[in-house]
């Protein structure tokens, strides 16, 4: 396999050195005595003082270098690593490894990370490889160092959890640490923690804390209450934050930069037009002092006016509030979900599966009972799948995790399995194999023309392949579902399912619509064979997605699995009259098909950095902060290779010369984040803007104001208007 060859190639320099030492005369062999041990040639130091970011530095001895592409990082128990941020290296051609990038003298790496609840240590494995570039020219074998670091604690946290003692300790530290910390002079509390609140509806509030770089807010030290509002209660829905180990508070959750908190007001408002909200909270300067408990009181206009406490903030544009998860009512969210599900039927990711049902409905056109049965079982499959998806998202949300719309396609094993399913369905429609009733209970007869189980599982498959698509109207409905209470969220997902199944329900139960369908005939067999080709195209698209996730090794494995699957189906058709030996061979081939898929799940992401697109800056929080501090307007595009809506927007708008000219005219930077594979950094950005998944488009103005979230379906006029406003 290519991966085995790659591993052997990586060891060729070391093997060459070993053979040289064994075969060469004794005098040259002594030249290697002056070579440094690997840990002295490449001295690695680690800094975990910044919560959520591990910083590494290699000091490289003279005449030694490190390979950029041979660096690998793996988190230990409870530690999930994001994509490592590495500088570009010196490019040259290596006789063993081909075109490579190398580092001399020293190099820094920055790795974002998240930790599970209860994790107290930052365990990370760091693998690297380098060479000596003058005589004797040798390369070290890959070397791994295991880091075990304490998670960063809040420097100078309050002495005890009690509010009074915390205040005294913070005041003591304010006097003792002023002007002595590396973090710089602390800002006044009003500037360090800017607090604002506004009403998104009669019973929906949005609170926002904005902190400069290097400051953070404690979640569990924040309390909210209403003044003169008997009978009213507040229910905040805190977003996921950064896990942090505090020397006094223990394991806590903190927020950096900015946090938005949706708050539901329960109780009878009795015609109230305003609410007086009192917020008490505490935060720290990273590496500096911790502030005493702060209390701010704001007067909120329930008609939508914003209230700000602290340094005045720029007025929030109405479009900026579109990212709020509960800015629509349940009824509006249900209607949007119904419309979005209906439009999903027209999306290219769903049409191949609908071709299966088109054949079924046409063939049952003369039998109304059969048509109704088709519609009901297909709808049952769609609704069951949406309900399962909704319950899974709610369970993950309750556990403190996040799952985005379509994010299941971040799993290479699922992508490979779906490619095989699409191939099997296409082969069935092409007539290579006919699934009989004996396979109905296994779900293999997705294309069976009469089986209710086939109708049900066609509905399931329709939901699975619909997830990479985002139809108009779906964005607000999904954002509502990802933040709403359990029952409301489930209703929204079921409304999406009803919209997706509605065309077949209408054909099955409205005779006038059914009469518009053509009558069955011999032409149906030809149509069914023609409709197999969209299945093959979908399988090819999924293999392309897999190539971007896991590289050539993964593509090779899934192609082997597809060939074995085709052989299995071919032999299955030939073995119908061959008795037990033929069926045994089918079972053996089917098991063989699973082996490449099992190996596919073990393939790691490619270690080499992706080639940057011309005129595009890769997303990172640090780079975005730098550009905003420099007064540069930024257009952030969160996308994924499996997101069909993203690709449609790129083809129609973002990949055009007109868009590139617009960027040049406005001085804006195009920043792109790739969510094709799991990426905690991008997941955090999506959560910050309450986005259920990709695409997500945010325009940041040059004046430093809040980002403006755009629609998931872009137009040229929309982009031009947003960037022109951002550049003013």
TrEMBL record:
Keywords: Cell membrane, Cytochrome c-type biogenesis, Membrane, Redox-active center, Signal, Transmembrane, Transmembrane helix. Residues 1-29 form the signal peptide. InterPro entries: Cyt_c_assmbl_TM_dom, DsbD_gamma, DsbDN, DsbDN_sf, Thioredoxin-like_sf, Thioredoxin_CS, Thioredoxin_domain. One of its GO terms (molecular function) is protein-disulfide reductase activity. It holds the Pfam family DsbD_N. It is a multi-pass membrane protein. Its main location: membrane. One of its GO terms (biological process) is cytochrome complex assembly. The chain crosses the membrane at residues 330-354, 375-400, 412-435, 456-483, 489-518, 530-548, 554-572, 584-601. It is found in: Cell membrane. One of its GO terms (cellular component) is plasma membrane. Residues 599-728 form the Thioredoxin domain. This is Protein-disulfide reductase. It comes from Rhodanobacter denitrificans.
């Amino acid at each position: 396999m290519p991966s085995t060859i790659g591993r052997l190639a990586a060891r060729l320099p070391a093997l060459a050195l070993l053979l040289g030492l064994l075969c060469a005369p004794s005098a040259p062999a002594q030249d290697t005595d002056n070579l440094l041990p690997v840990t002295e040639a490449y001295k690695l130091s680690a800094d975990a003082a910044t919560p959520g970011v591990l910083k590494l530095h290699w000091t490289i001895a003279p005449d030694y270098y490190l390979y950029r592409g041979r660096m690998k990082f793996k988190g230990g128990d409870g530690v999930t690593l994001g994509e490592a941020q590495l500088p570009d290296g010196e490019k040259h051609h290596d006789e063993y490894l081909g075109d490579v990038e190398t580092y001399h003298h020293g190099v820094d790496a920055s790795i974002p990370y998240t930790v599970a609840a209860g994790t107290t240590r930052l365990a990370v494995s760091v693998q690297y490889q380098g060479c000596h570039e003058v005589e004797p020219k040798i390369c070290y074998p890959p070397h791994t160092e295991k880091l075990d670091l304490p998670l960063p604690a809040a420097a100078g946290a309050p002495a005890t959890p009690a509010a009074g003692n915390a205040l005294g300790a913070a005041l003591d530290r304010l006097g003792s640490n002023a002007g002595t910390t590396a973090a710089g002079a602390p800002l006044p509390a009003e500037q360090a923690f800017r607090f604002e609140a506004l009403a998104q509806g009669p019973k929906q509030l949005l609170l926002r804390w904005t902190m400069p770089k290097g400051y953070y807010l404690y979640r569990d030290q924040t309390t909210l209450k209403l003044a003169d509002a008997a009978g009213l209660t507040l229910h905040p829905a805190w977003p996921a934050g950064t896990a942090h180990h505090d020397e006094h508070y223990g394991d806590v959750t903190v927020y950096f930069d900015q946090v938005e908190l949706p708050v539901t007001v329960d109780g009878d408002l009795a015609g109230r037009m305003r609410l007086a909200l009192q917020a008490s909270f505490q935060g720290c300067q990273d590496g500096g002092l911790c502030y005493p408990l702060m209390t701010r009181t704001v007067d909120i206009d329930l008609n939508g006016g914003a209230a700000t406490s602290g340094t005045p903030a720029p007025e929030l544009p109405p479009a900026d509030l579109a990212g709020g998860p509960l800015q629509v009512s349940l009824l509006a969210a249900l209607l949007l979900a119904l419309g979005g599900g209906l439009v999903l039927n027209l999306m290219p990711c769903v049409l191949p599966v609908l071709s299966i049902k088109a054949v079924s409905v046409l063939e049952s056109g003369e039998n109304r009972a059969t048509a109704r049965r088709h519609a009901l079982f297909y709808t049952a499959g769609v609704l069951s799948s949406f309900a399962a998806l909704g319950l899974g998202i709610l369970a993950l949300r309750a556990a403190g995790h996040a799952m985005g719309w379509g994010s299941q396609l971040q799993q290479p094993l699922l992508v490979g399995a779906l490619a095989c399913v699409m191939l099997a369905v296409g082969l069935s429609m092409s007539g290579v194999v006919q699934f009989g009733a004996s396979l109905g209970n296994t779900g293999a007869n997705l294309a069976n023309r009469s089986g209710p189980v086939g109708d049900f599982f066609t509905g399931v498959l329709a939901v699975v392949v619909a997830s990479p698509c985002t139809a108009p109207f779906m964005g607000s409905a999904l954002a509502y579902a990802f933040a709403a209470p359990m029952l409301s969220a489930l209703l929204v997902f079921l409304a999406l399912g009803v919209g997706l199944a509605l065309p077949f329900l209408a054909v099955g139960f409205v005779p006038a619509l059914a009469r518009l369908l053509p009558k069955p005939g011999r032409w149906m067999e030809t149509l069914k064979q023609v409709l197999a080709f969209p299945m093959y195209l979908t399988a090819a698209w999924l293999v392309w997605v897999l190539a971007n996730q896991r590289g050539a090794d993964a593509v090779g494995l899934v192609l082997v699995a597809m060939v074995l699957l085709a052989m299995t189906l071919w032999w299955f058709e030939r073995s119908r009259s061959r008795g037990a030996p033929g069926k045994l061979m089918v079972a053996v081939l089917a098991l063989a098909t699973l082996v490449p898929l099992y190996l596919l799940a073990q393939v790691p992401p490619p270690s080499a950095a992706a080639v940057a697109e011309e005129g595009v800056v890769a997303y990172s929080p640090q780079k975005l902060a730098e550009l905003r501090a420099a007064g540069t307007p930024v257009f952030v595009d969160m996308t994924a290779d499996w997101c069909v809506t993203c690709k449609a927007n790129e083809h129609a708008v973002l990949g055009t010369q007109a868009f590139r000219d617009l960027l040049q005219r406005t001085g804006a930077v195009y920043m792109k984040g790739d969510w094709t594979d799991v990426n905690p950094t991008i997941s955090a950005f999506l959560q910050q803007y309450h986005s259920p998944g990709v695409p997500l488009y945010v325009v940041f103005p040059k004046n430093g104001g809040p980002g403006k979230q755009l629609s998931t379906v872009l137009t040229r006029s929309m982009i031009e208007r947003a960037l022109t406003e951002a550049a003013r």
